[in-house]
Amino acid sequence: MNTTALRAPLGTDTGTGARTALLDWGGAALYLLAAGLLLSAGPGDSGLLQATVLLLAVSLLAGLVRRRPQAALAMTVLAGTLVAFSAGDQGPDRLLVYLPVDFVLGAVVAGRPRREAVAAGSAVAVVQVLAAGLLAPGPLLTSAGLVAVLALGTSCMAGLLVRQRRVHAVELRAKAVSEAVTAERLRIARELHDMVAHSIGVIAIQAGVGGRVIGTRPEEARSALDAIERTSREALAGLRRTLVALRRAEPGEEDGGVPTVPAPGVAGLDALAASLRGSGVGVEVRWTGEPRRLPPDIDLSVYRIVQEALTNVVRHAGGSARARVTVDFREREVHVEVVDDGRGAAVRPGGAGFGITGMYERVSLLQGRFSAGPRPEGGFRVAAELPLPAGSTEVPR
């Protein structure tokens, strides 16, 4: 029988929780001590001085405000009320001792659920309005009550603004994560489609050739079977590489000894063309310009674009078609063109097929230009221009 050890989440062990609680309630005790000293102070202390002392002392409640804001609010309301009613200063300034209450109320509005925030704001409003009615002299009652309401409203508005900023930040993070997941899903879909579609297309063509000549030309049938085996192994290696990359929890994690091969690039275009010649499609690869070592993402994209274009030639252009691949290394970009003389059909990105759409997406992600369509003289043309980043054009291949 297997047993699994249960571990507490990081930062929630008993020792850390006890120390945090000790600091929170220790700060609360010091705050109450400061309020008690104000209660025992002489009658000469002004309300402004008492409010200043309580505002400075409210910093001792920082931990309690963060983790138990309701308790911190109740403590400040109690301390402020006791100090206000016991103050020697009989003027309206003694109502300033409720400023720490408004400060903590803003934290409650910012961090607690709406129902709790409304209940806390209503309770504080009732206490402050009653205190203003009991403590402010008759002629100053209206002004004192108005100041109390404005201070309360200001703290609530500040808390609401902080809450909205937090909600907006959470929404932005969630949107960024969703977009990243979508982009990665599309990248994997493009990679699997380009790899599997090409391999399956070649296998289908070679299997058809082998089936037609197995009785009359066994050597040619054996050659077709060899091509099927080679293509299948290449497809399995590519799938294994993709699955290993997906299963890794971290970039540096070991892959469990599963053999992988490097990602394909422009260096493999000649081998790609050679693998298709046995399918009855003649492929010619031309290199122009000064060859350069391309960045990995551009290198892979060039290969996949050519691979998908040649796969479409095998599928749609007919068995006797010829294709020409041109890779032109220019000063600031690399230009790729694949043309054939078969039976091309107009296809637009976003149509029913995934091949043209995948090529278009690859080029768009690299800020390049892409075009695909039938040629006036017959056949089909696929062209892509991929800009090279600064510094990559001078690295010899």
Summarize the topology.
Elements: H1 14-39, H2 47-57, H3 62-67, H4 69-86, H5 99-111, H6 114-135, H7 141-213, H8 218-247, H9 269-277, E1 282-289, H10 296-316, E2 322-329, E3 333-340, H11 355-365, E4 369-374, E5 380-387
Parallel strand pairs: 1-2
Antiparallel strand pairs: 2-3, 3-5, 4-5
Helix pairs in contact: 1-2, 1-4, 4-5, 4-6, 5-6, 5-7, 6-7, 7-8, 7-10, 7-11, 9-10, 10-11
Output the keywords.
alpha+beta, 5 strands, 5-stranded mixed beta sheet, disordered C terminus, rod-shaped, 2 domains, disordered N terminus, histidine kinase, 11 helices, Heat Shock Protein 90, 397 residues
Rg over CA atoms: 37 Å
Q: Estimate nothing, just give the exact number of structural domains.
A: 2
Helix content: 55-70%
- Widest β-sheet, arrangement of strands: 1-2-3-5-4
Measure the end-to-end span: 58 Å
Summarize the main sheet.
5 strands, mixed
Q: Name the helix and strand elements from N-terminus to C-terminus, one letter apiece.
A: HHHHHHHHHEHEEHEE
In terms of DSSP E residues, the strand content is 5-15%
Overall spatial form:
rod-shaped
Number of helices: 11
Regions with pLDDT < 50 over 5+ consecutive residues?
A: 1-12, 249-253, 255-259, 348-352, 393-397
Average pLDDT metric = 76
Total strands: 5
Q: Provide the structure class.
A: alpha+beta
Keywords: ATP-binding, Kinase, Membrane, Nucleotide-binding, Phosphoprotein, Transferase, Transmembrane, Transmembrane helix, Two-component regulatory system
EC number: 2.7.13.3
Pfam families: HATPase_c, HisKA_3
Catalytic activity: ATP + protein L-histidine = ADP + protein N-phospho-L-histidine
